[in-house]
Write a structure and sequence with these properties.
Two copies of one chain form a homodimer. Chain A has one domain (2-214): Rossmann fold. Chain A has a nine-stranded mixed beta sheet, sandwiched between helices. The longest helix of chain A is centred in the middle third of the chain and has 22 residues, at 82-103. The radius of gyration of chain A is 16 Å and the shape is globular. Chain A is α/β, with parallel strands linked by helices and 216 residues long. Chain A contains eight helices and eleven strands. Chains A, B: It comes from Pontibacillus salipaludis.
């Protein structure tokens, strides 16, 4: 299975590409924005592809052709300018969803925000709510497709080393999770078809990632 | 017919409320953000209602109850911060669309941007493209409802006095249009049921607003 990792150069993305390359039968195509980011992924044996999420649908579709799954883990994040929130977190995500449809790729794993409900938009601090709204509409767009999607809602991301232990459910208590464990949960979702059509929150916990995802 | 004007305190909104109040059989409910904006609308005989578009769906639905049509002419505009582009031009618009549905109001007139296609997002200058994207997704949301909608795509807005003459068609040459004439085109759309389910661009032209809208 070949997996297009959108946002490969992000912190979750880098963990994910490495884990994919370390997994028998999986191969990563790393979508990156700049040529100079390519060598890191080549060294891992992954295939880099340089495409800007602000680029045209055609460019993004071309990068998507020939893969078996798309993982969207790009993110301007809440700390970039809100112009990028619109163009990357929402519009960029939508373009990759449409690219998956155009390229005939059924499997799509979206890394969302912890809570992207209407209530979460309303309740978020004003600096954060545009980001929540962007993720809300991107998730909504994906749900309305007939793609084999999974939407993962991670808690607060940390750079701690992964523990391999998480809690996963439709609703969990708000908490932290190392980016490396988010990458593991993505990998487990790609490997377990039972996650198709599901969405769930993840935080640090006490179950192995594999079991936590299996038990959803 | 009672018309909720969302963004009544904007420049198009002010013209529109006045024109509605000057029209036999029409009455405006002016949705405004601040109490101190109310007296202008009271003086026109319109009913002001103070609601923030960043407010809850319940607040917006409550303001929508009892009217016969909603006009969305709010707009952070391309010159406000992009955080407001997300929360007003997209999310605020969506909330008013959902409010119309909840309140059982079928008629909805959206004032969009001149070109909100995918191509327009891609081709816009980078400072403008978040705004185009916001309007793209708001228009898309509206099209997917079963509301009796009309989407008006005005050319470059000016503060010139209205001429009462416009050009209107699915596609017209890019050009300017006085805000007052946009308000007249909204009024004509509200009065002509033939505009339901249609969307069109408008610029300054040589037909009376009534005829231009009738001939769509």
């Amino acid at each position: 299975m070949k997996v297009l990792v959108v946002g490969a150069n992000g912190q979750v993305g880098k963990h994910l590409v490495k884990k994919i390359q370390d997994t028998e039968g999986l191969q990563a195509k790393a979508m990156i924005r700049k040529e100079e980011q390519a060598s890191y992924f080549k060294d891992l044996g992954a295939e880099p592809v340089v495409v800007d999420l602000e680029g045209t649908p055609d460019e993004i579709t071309k990068a998507t052709e020939g893969v078996d799954a798309v993982v969207f883990t790009a993110g301007s994040g809440p700390n970039t300018g809100p112009d990028k929130t619109m163009l990357i977190d929402l519009d960029g995500a939508v373009k990759t969803i449409e690219a998956a449809k155009s390229a005939g790729v059924k499997r799509y794993v979206m890394i969302s925000s912890f809570d992207t409900t209407r209530e979460a938009i309303q309740e978020a601090p004003s600096s954060f709510s545009p980001y929540v709204a962007a993720k809300h509409y991107a998730d909504d767009w994906l749900r309305r497709t007939d793609l084999d999607y999974t939407i993962i809602h991670p808690g607060m991301l940390t750079n701690d080393e992964g523990t391999g232990q998480i809690e996963a459910a439709e609703k969990v208590e708000r908490g932290e999770i190392p980016r490396e464990d988010v990458a593991s949960a993505i990998l487990a979702s790609l490997q377990q078809e039972s996650t198709i059509g599901k969405e769930f929150q993840i935080v640090g916990g006490s179950k192995s990632v594999h079991d936590a995802v299996k038990d959803l």
